[in-house]
Amino acid sequence: MKEGALSGGILDPGIMQAMEVTFNRIRAATYLCHLLLPPLLETKGSMIIVSSVAATTPIYGGGASLSYYMCDAAFDMLSKTLACEFGSKGVRVNTVNPGMVDTPSNFTLLDYEVAKKYVEEGAQKSAIGKIIPPEDVAKSIAFLASSASAFITGHSLVVDGGLIYK
């Protein structure tokens, strides 16, 4: 595992270091929402937080990725809480939860061979049989930002090719 990776089970000696990374990610997302909400209130806009399917179920290695799962679950709850608080003021807040997306970032936290194995396994685990093209995640975000989703708020849209069901 590379330095700063979001991993480790509860008994891992590096769990508290992983939790610091997690808390920093949550803090950054919260602060970004704090900065973005005033203009969204003026424009009655929509906010989409990108989390991951890991927020819904611990599918990648069980407890070995505890802090990663906790972080993404926090993003989902941030979205739901903001949706409740600002929905009556005309601001919708949703989350997109992609599974494994075909991007170079798959190889930034893990050594290349380990990452390659995860990517291949992720494709096999998906009901569709492949990892997600980034364009599919972008289309789901565009949908949630559009007027076509005017009555959707506080929702976590899973875009995983059926990964959590297979």
Automatic annotation (TrEMBL):
<dbReference type="InterPro" id="IPR002347">
    <property type="entry name" value="SDR_fam"/>
</dbReference>
<dbReference type="Pfam" id="PF13561">
    <property type="entry name" value="adh_short_C2"/>
</dbReference>
<dbReference type="InterPro" id="IPR036291">
    <property type="entry name" value="NAD(P)-bd_dom_sf"/>
</dbReference>
<protein>
    <submittedName>
        <fullName>L-xylulose reductase-like protein</fullName>
    </submittedName>
</protein>
